[in-house]
């Protein structure tokens, strides 16, 4: 099978997590801002789409070259055997990006790339009329950085955060990939209790259960590559069957999600059912201020409503203060709280062990980490 240079893309601040996921799957990686490179064949492409929890997309790096004129962009793009990747009837939109480059007009970059590929395919398929573009989707991107051109082909389709289980969302939902990142950053072991005190539509608890059960996050969906004529559908079926056989049904899990809103609890339960982990999570209606526990060595991960998100800073800080009153009396628990409020530590009443900058969409947020002193059972 042909080997490709592959690129996983992810939100800012998630690169190390994706690189670790790929290394655990046996791939050698190279990391840059917002992307991790690795090599693999079509089976590896499908496997990465199926199993990566924190990445957004898997792309094939089709071409790389330098270009300072539109002529150079056209000729070098046209020189590639696009007929090896794109069938006669392919639908192939071209996205574009450019920074610090002479070719800075993105619409022109997109148009020239498209024109070059159309010319190449028209010659290869011996047609003088328009290409039909009635078949499967092949999304391309021409990204130019410091006059270096990289043309990629997206194998994923809808972003990997779309796991297929979220039937309804709350007011300010967290992407599934971000929720998985928070669980990974919390270093939770399945023999310890896991709590999300502001669970909303249940995403963090559900992602914890998927990790605890070793359920591949892409098991309930498909990817663009599945429909391509040079991809053998049996590969996908085999890898999914293999993933199903690797689910760990025996591990006892102690995962709880709480929310003040009973409607959100119903939504969370439905989402968990759709994800196949309905029996693994206990969802209850309870205000964060009313929660307490006598369990030890737990992990708590919260994405509480923050002022910027719900428009009421005072109410958010009151909640942080109530959380601090409870959580600061739980020394064996590790607490991970995500917020954009830079005054969080003051309201919470304790300085974090560590703070990590992340992005929730375009919003800069910090993950405040309070590490527990674990007691051996």
UniProtKB/TrEMBL annotation:
UniProtKB keywords: Methyltransferase, RNA-binding, Transferase
InterPro entries recorded: DNA_methylase_N6_adenine_CS, RlmKL-like_Mtase, RlmL_1st, SAM-dependent_MTases_sf, THUMP_dom
Membrane spanning stretches: none
GO molecular function: RNA binding; rRNA (guanine-N2-)-methyltransferase activity; rRNA (guanine-N7-)-methyltransferase activity
Tree of life domain: Bacteria
Keyword Membrane: no
CDD domains in the cross-refs: THUMP_AdoMetMT (cd11715)
Gene3D superfamilies registered for this protein in UniProt: 3.30.2130.30, Vaccinia Virus protein VP39 (3.40.50.150)
Ranges where the THUMP domain occurs: 44-155
One Pfam assignment: UPF0020
Name of the protein described by the UniProt record: Putative N6-adenine-specific DNA methylase
Species name: Weissella bombi
